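Minutes, project check-in
Item: structure for the 158-residue chain
Input as provided by the requester:
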Amino acid sequence: MAGLGDVVKGTVQIAEAMGVTLKQLTKKPVTVEYPEEPIAVFPRYRGRHMLRKYDSGMERCIGCCLCEAACPTGAIFVDAAENDPANPHSPGERYAKTYEVNLLRCVFCGDCEEACPVEAIVLTQAIPMPEQSRRSFILTKEQLLEAPEANIAIRPEA
């Protein structure tokens, strides 16, 4: 008789499991078809980097390399050069001739943002898009000066 009891008990457990499965089938899927649909992120989300400019069009970065020094993973490379007085790139004596951010090494901690004395580098809420090659994950100065497209929706703090 123990065998018949086990069969009944197993049948009840299978029916309960199927009930859970059927209940989940009626719910809306959690996945989002990104980038066609916006993805919901928290207001304090830190995404892709961006170099800011002044309203006059001059670059904010003065080539001080503090962001490079503050980066715990070494994801930022800055090569500073002297500013040409006749055609300055930034208001300081120096500017960033080369500015690169390696997104494969970056942990999006925001230390570069906090270290910058002129608020030149910021972490936007744009999500870095997946790429095919490793080289495409290294953002150059020209890419960083462009404002990234942010296909997101801000969700309320939990």
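Outcome recorded: Helices lie at 2-25, 66-70, 111-115, 141-145.
No further action items on this chain.
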